[in-house]
Design brief:
Strand content: 15-25%
CATH superfamily of the largest domain: DD-peptidase/beta-lactamase superfamily
Radius of gyration: 26 Å
CATH class of the largest domain: Alpha Beta
Largest sheet: 8 strands, antiparallel
CATH architecture of the largest domain: 3-Layer(aba) Sandwich
Number of helices: 13
Shape: globular
Length: about 450
Amino acid sequence: MTTPQEELLAGTRRALLHRIAVAQAEERAPSLVATVVRDGEAVWAGVRTSLEGNAPDGDTQYRIGSLTKTFTAVLVLRLRDEGVVDLGEPLEKYLPGTGAGEATIAELLAHTGGLAAETPGPWWERTPGSLRPGLADVLGEHPLVHPVGRRFHYSNPGYALLGALVEKMRGASWEAVLRREVLEPLSLHRTGVRPQAPYADGWAVHPWADVMQREPAEDLGRMAPAGQLWSTTSDLARFAAFLAHGDERVLDIGSLREMRRPAAPAEAADVASGYAYGLGMEVRHRDGRALIGHTGSLPGFLACLVMSVEDDVAAVVLANCTSGPLLFPVAADLVRIVAEAEPRIPAPWRPLREADSAVLELVGQWYWGTLGFALRLSADGLVSLEPLSGKGRGSSFRSNGDGTWTGLEGYYAGELLRPVRRSDGSVSHLDLGSFVFNRRPYDEEAFVPGGADPEGWRGVG
């Protein structure tokens, strides 16, 4: 964790302030507040405002819109981890009669359930939730606009259904469950469904004149799990630290990694823009850096939380305007500024405490056909198979405790790596999902599917 002596350098702090000042001034935001988190601790906070003598700070509440969805997703993953629900099962199994078809819980989390983007009737973000008292009012007569599971289509009603699922399984309101299971354990005391002073007013800024008018702040009712929450940069900094590192009282790091992993088939435009969606979290690529988090907007407010897991740097940016600064580029730049100006210092290398001789026998060079690979054992107990040329498929593998290993990434994710031994116990070859790796390419003395040319290696005569 960061210590007080590790505060950001003066030049870094000025660069961060300059970035939010440009965003607030050029995009005409009434106010903009930001926080940067490094190694799980808030290390910088900045604010720019047009209201003299009334500057917001890290304790000032803003509406965070669809960032609420990440909180709802955490509640659903908790249900899964407790064995209450199965993400692969249709919602209908647990919450019958919604009309959402056979969409699974995972598909709703990933916006691949085929549901419409918005509710029928008047604009739900600017009208009271009492106009939509039931799920039928949220979904309408024709809730499906795409085949279930076939494409990514962002759906706000889908998260209303997930909130209803939480209520059904817990026997309490979404708000009560959220407070008990997430907000209180993480000490997010300034996050909730209704504003508590001090809070920012929501404004609409005229597109062609430097004037403003207030936006309504409606209670969204059934749509609350999709976008109701108010929060502060201080609370969201703690939430970002949780999303990066986990907290056993709420959700372990394994489930959070699952949330951060792309789960939805991306459209061509999304691939081009580096955008993907996990289970309640957005996955973006910018400046060669993977950024995880979520954006949000409601009339009068914009919000963004992003983090680079590799750099262990996160940024939260909030503004009180309906349209104005696109907060993802601002937050992404805050992460980049810190990561590049003050790169993360790696932990000291330390060797394994104990080394299994059976595993040490496997490390070193292997060949799949004519492609060379290196099998390495790291201090975290994982083995990695890496192409020597830098081109080809590689993965880390986790031990299954029985002499086999399971792939964790890419093409080999979930695939079994198995050392095959001869009758004398020595290793003949590695079997990886039926691919055979030998110590030498097409060794005539080794097991080679299809056999090796009996004439061996030769030149062209």
